[in-house]
Amino acid sequence: MNTNILKKTKKISYLITAFGFLTYSVFLSADGKVPESANKQLTTILAERWDYSLKESPLSATHAGVDKYNHLLPRVSAAHNDRRLVTEKAFLNRLTHIDVSALTAENRINHQLLQWILKQKIEGYQLNLARIPLTTFSSFFMSVLGMANGLPMNSIKDYQDYITRLNAIPRYFNENIDNMRTGIETKFTLPKIVVEGILPTVLAQVYKDPTNSSLYKPFLKISDTISPENQEKLRVSAKKAISQSAIPAFKSFADFFGGDYLQAATKTLGAEQMHNGKAYYAHQIKTYTTLTHLTASQIHQTGLSEVKRIRAEMVKVIKSLNFEGTFENFTQFLRTDPQFYAKSAKDLLKEASYIAKRIDYVMPEFFGKLPRIPYGIVPVPKEIAPNYTTASYNSALVGGNRGGAYWLNTYQLDQRPLYELTALTLHEAVPGHHHQSAISSELQDVPKFRLALYFSAYGEGWGLYAEKLGVEMGVYDTPYDNFGRLSYEMWRACRLVIDTGIHAMGWSRQQGLDFLASNTSLSKANVRAEVDRYISWPGQALSYKLGELAIWTLRNKAEQSLGDKFNIKSFHDALLGNGALPLTMVEAEIDRYIAASG
Q1: Predicted local confidence at residue 538, as pLDDT
Q2: Residue-level pLDDT at 6
Q3: Of 51, 129, 363, 554, which is most buried with the most CB atoms under 10 A?
Q4: Secondary structure (3-state) at 514
């Protein structure tokens, strides 16, 4: 026997008398330990990566119900991002050395998922995306403003952790400003038109009275378990932290954002016109669509084709109403007739609530599994509403004191038409984002990183699919409601055209505004907010329609393959049953569902 091998491994054989002879051999490594199996190796990596991600993203940790880092805000300096790049590469390297063929079926999903995430993270760090840490829809400062939403605060330590976080805001903002200065130096900035739109929201956070800031909200009603004396001490500390740390940080950022940054912001709009722009836009497309085979040109053509198809359906609805006039006349009628608009914010919220409960009533007919987590309908916070989109969904904190939140924008009621409200509610609440997100958060026997995982093409594609599913669910009461649905579908088809038009084909902002306004019944305020969102957030708008088309393709495949055996409830449960996945992995799961059902 080769003595070199003996030095590296030891072999122990056991001869056991049972039903014959069984030889059991174990190879030990040089340190005397049995090498880990592929599944054990992956489990170790998943646990380490999860703990690492919580430590690196304290706000995400809080959202996941882990209170260990509730006193911290993220570190986003160039040095910290460089360190993360090295760490993520090390995780990926360990993954690539695992024998995938030896993994269980579930662990193959886990392996593929984490590999996808790590590759996208690494590419993002290499492109230094931290240079633009905000869009019209989300930003580092909006994360700070919302860091108490749903957060359970019952002890003195809970409040003290929050106050410590408030005092960390200046450091956090300064690190983001430093990254944005690097963006100025490397000609990688937001366009000027976007900066001008976001700036008022930043300026609105500079209050003379700290109690007017939304950051003070947790101290308006402190837990009764804390004595009045300690409550007062906490309020004094909070006011001091907001007035001496948070508000000056917002003022400093506003000065920079409206000064040096605005002056340096690009006049051009397209991602591909930026430094290393083609690689940047390709990364954005891959990140948000989870597809690697589509080019900007192909997506643009898909959008034009969908616009043509949906326009024909919209014309049919107009004819069914015996409306006399052109398509433009009809959309103008929808935008201006008082019957289509709520008279108060409360009326708009009530109407959305009524629609939501009607949908809740028929959900069991279309879904076998319903989540335990409830949801509510709340107005978009006033300080961000003017430049915010029509609505959004905010998932519940794990262990928090609130359910999921369907945010509805009640700013400028004459721009929030009621005929779009059914489609909007289907998308944001049930069976759209709340249902999908809650099902994902309640998955059993999966690694923790999958419980809050989100892929835009999957989530937004499902939301748009849910809007059309509403036809089968029978929740569109009038032709106007159905036209609102088609207008929303057209809106998402237009996104394919406008996003690629602006970021890859040299379109102007006005071209985007005109294209969206002429093909949908969206109000002018929504049209402006949407186009500016596409400009500030390259690629994300592509995820809706491309994701929806992929889901309908899979449903048609299942219906054709299974025939009479096709069951809508089991199909939906299969589609949602593994949580968020890249579209290629969703297809593989549905193929397995078809095989098992057939």
Answers
A1: 98
A2: 37
A3: 554
A4: helix
How wide is the angle at C-alpha 138 spanned by C-alphas 137 and 140, nearest 5°?
155
Distance linking the first and last C-alpha atoms of the chain:
54
Instruction: Please report, for residues 58, 252, 323, 335, the alpha-carbon distance to residue 480 in angstroms, rounded to integers and kept in the order given.
Output: 45, 47, 12, 12
Strands 391-394 and 375-379, sheet pairing: unpaired
Confidence of residue 33 (pLDDT cuts 50, 70, 90): low
Tens digit of each residue's pLDDT (9 = 90 or more) over 534-572: 999 999 999 999 999 999 999 999 999 999 999 999 999
Q: Is 562 left (phi over 0), alpha (psi -120 to 50) or beta?
A: alpha
Distance CA 515, CA 194 (A): 19
* Listed residue (314, 281, 317, 318) closest to 300, CA to CA: 281
SS (H, E, C) 410-431: CCCHHHCCHHHHHHHHHHHCCC
Residue with tokens 């993954």: 95
Q: Is 139 helix (H, G, I), strand (E, B) or coil?
A: strand
H or E element at residue 378: strand 375-379
Tell me what pLDDT residue 4 has: 44
> How would DSSP label each residue in 313-372?
HHHHHHHHTT--S-HHHHHHHHHH-GGGS-SSHHHHHHHHHHHHHHHHHHGGGT-S---S
Could you give the residue ranges of the DSSP H alpha helices within 442-542?
456-473, 479-504, 509-519, 524-536
- Calculate the alpha carbon distances from 194 to 102, 428, 447, 530 in Å: 50, 25, 39, 11
What's the rounded Cα separation, in Å, for the pair 551 and 537? 24
Residue 99's φ and ψ, nearest 5 degrees, are -75, 100
83: nearest Cα among 119, 52, 45, 42: 52
Q: Facing residues of 10 across strands?
A: 28
| R_g of the chain computed on alpha carbons | 26
Place of tokens 């380490």: 48
Under DSSP, the state recorded for 152 is: -
Answer whether 234's CB lies under 8 Å from 222's CB. Answer: yes
